[in-house]
Specification:
Organism: Paramuricea clavata
Strand content: 15-25%
Radius of gyration: 47 Å
Keywords: Cell membrane, Cell projection, Disulfide bond, G-protein coupled receptor, Glycoprotein, Membrane, Postsynaptic cell membrane, Receptor, Signal, Synapse, Transducer, Transmembrane, Transmembrane helix
CATH topology of the largest domain: Rhopdopsin 7-helix transmembrane proteins
Number of domains: 3
GO cellular component, one term: postsynaptic membrane
Membrane topology: Multi-pass membrane protein
Oligomer: single chain
Largest sheet: 7 strands, antiparallel
Helix content: 40-55%
Family: Belongs to the G-protein coupled receptor 3 family.
Order of helices and strands: HHEEEEEEEEEEEEEEEHEHHHHHEEHHH
């Protein structure tokens, strides 16, 4: 603590005021002389009494000195009455004696001068201080007015020493406040002091609080602790007295104490201070909690630990089916002039495959660790793929319904280019909605708990934003399927489209109800399995019904031709 300056002396504001008042009293009274031109207050017993009065004025004060410079008191070379509380004689006992009789404090460091090793006559602060200010006062007595001018000592003249060990009377750590004295000619006379015993004072080395929460009798050395700021924070220990490292280092929020068996979950300040600058200093760090844990006592996970084996199996199946879907797209492009493929509009077949592949990619991203960006990307992939696939099915069914309704009256043609325009409008509407949704939502990283109490990443706010529109499109598709159920079509394509739409409606309603009833399943792995199954029940069955039927028809035709050729 030596060399540090206290940051708050307000604890002793009353004691400072008393000492300054005594200094001002002596300064103002020194001008009044007796017949031998000696100050009326220049009285040995009066000075002893003032020193004793200051010492007794507060329980916080250990002792007080009224010390004069060379030959400033009754032509004595030294005079320095010192009053202090003598614990050997009782709690309220005051001992008073003249330090000048026992020590040459003007030339040799003594009890008084040793309070600050820089205090000597030749660099003492007030030898070079400005002259005290003047104060005028009008006094009326017996009808006569007097204008009296006296000096007073501004409070800014008062000085504090650094903490020192008193080897003379207290045998303890102290700190001293000094106020100067002047005569009527502004000549320095000496000083008035009081001593504070620091054993009853606490040292707070922790960081400064945001609000003023000063503990009674606490000195602040803010920010001088040795705690590892990255993982621990300093907490002041009350009752430690005037000692360094009077604190302990507790783990910050998001960290836990490394010794799980320790009764007290903190590091003692003295231990951390001793290790500072040494190789083992880093061992006084707390350990970080697992991801998602705001607070923890050990390394136990807070976030749900995903079943990666299960997810890997599902991802592998998804990627195999995705590769098959891409192969079907290549097949359609390669055999686009085939009569069976051409009858089903190869362009729309390609679009359906592309949309299904996008839906499969949504499952692929679901395998990865959840984040806001992935949540948004999954929504974009799923809904874009859905509108491409089922929008194409809807328009193909709508074309059949229109042709069947008007074919008796006039020829009705709905070419692929016309349907592509309608599909483009549907796609633009969905993309605009997704862009507005992405821009308008905060997409904060939401956390919810599983049924077992573990935390998990929750879905984005308003996830599946196009869900209502998709359900509306599917019900329109159901209505169209009912309209064309008796309509003849090439290779029974309308029948397979109807089965796809019925299957999708049933699956979406079932999964939606289960999510509501089971609170989104309360388990990330179960939710991923349901997403996998629902996507493949919808998309994979769609591919199977539309493409496998055509492949089987082509195979049957090839078999018939081979039979006739024989």
């Amino acid at each position: 603590t030596h060399g540090k300056t206290f940051q708050d002396y307000s604890l002793w504001s009353n004691e400072i005021g008393t000492t300054n008042n005594v200094a001002n009293y002596l300064t103002s009274m020194w001008r009044y002389k007796d017949e031998i031109n000696r100050s009326l207050i220049e009285n040995e017993m009066a000075i002893y009494t003032l020193a004793k009065t200051i010492a007794m004025s507060s329980d916080n004060i250990y002792g007080s000195v009224v010390c004069f410079d060379e030959n400033k008191f009754q032509q004595r070379r030294q005079f320095c009455p010192y009053a202090f509380k003598d614990s050997k004689r009782g709690k309220r006992a005051i001992t008073v004696h003249d330090l000048g009789r026992f020590n040459d404090y003007l030339t040799t460091p003594t009890h008084v001068l040793r309070r600050n090793n820089t205090f000597t006559k030749y660099n003492f602060n007030w030898w070079h201080a400005d002259k005290p200010a003047s104060n005028s006062l009008n006094i009326s007595a017996n009808g006569t007015s007097y204008n009296i001018t006296s000096n007073y000592i501004p409070s800014s003249y008062g000085k504090w020493t650094t903490p020192y060990y008193d080897c003379f009377g207290g045998q303890t750590w102290m700190i001293t406040y000094l106020a100067p004295l002047y005569d009527e000619a502004d000549t320095y006379l000496g000083c008035v002091t009081f001593d504070i015993e620091l054993n009853s004072i606490e040292i707070d080395q922790c960081d400064a609080p945001e609000t003023n929460q000063t503990w009674k009798s606490t000195l602040h050395f803010y920010g001088t602790h040795a705690c590892r700021n990255e993982t621990t924070e300093c907490v002041h220990e009350h009752g430690g007295g005037f000692t360094a490292a009077n604190y302990h280092c507790v783990c910050r929020k998001g960290f836990y104490f490394p010794d799980l068996n320790a009764e007290k979950k903190y590091f003692h300040g003295s231990e951390v201070l001793a290790a500072k600058g040494k190789p083992n200093y880093k061992s006084y760090d707390c350990l970080p909690c697992r991801k998602g844990c705001e607070e923890c006592v050990d390394d136990t996970p807070c976030m749900y630990q995903r079943n990666m084996l299960l997810r890997t199996v599902l991802l592998t199946i998804n990627e195999i089916i995705k590769a098959v879907a891409i192969g079907l797209g290549v097949f359609v492009f390669a055999f686009r002039e085939n009569k069976i493929i051409k009858a089903s509009s190869p362009v729309f077949m390609e679009i359906i495959v592309f949309g299904v592949v996008l839906m499969y990619f949504e499952i692929t991203l679901g395998y990865l660790e959840d984040s806001v960006l992935l949540c948004i990307a999954r929504s974009w992939l799923y809904h874009t793929g859905f509108i491409l696939s089922f929008g194409s099915l809807f328009l193909k069914t709508w074309r059949i319904a229109v042709i069947f309704r008007f074919h008796k009256n006039k020829a009705v043609k709905k070419r692929d280019t016309t349907l592509l325009k309608y599909l483009s409008l549907m796609l633009i509407a969905v993309l605009c909605y997704l862009m507005i949704w992405t821009w308008a939502q905060t997409h904060e990283y939401e956390i919810e708990k599983t049924a077992a109490g573990y935390k998990q990443f929750a879905v984005c706010p308003l996830d599946r934003p196009c869900g209502r529109g998709e359900v509306l499109l599917l019900f329109c598709g159901v209505w169209l399927c009912l309209r064309v159920r008796k309509t003849p079509s090439a290779y029974n394509e309308s029948k397979y489209i109807a089965w796809c739409i019925y299957n999708t409606v049933f699956t979406k309603i079932l999964v939606g109800l289960l999510r509501i009833v089971l609170d989104n399943f309360g388990n990330p792995d179960v939710s991923y399995v349901v997403d996998f199954l629902s996507t493949h029940i919808v998309a994979t069955i769609l591919l199977a019904l539309l493409f496998m039927s055509k492949l089987s028809i082509q195979e049957a035709k090839d078999y018939t031709l081979n039979s006739y050729s024989k």
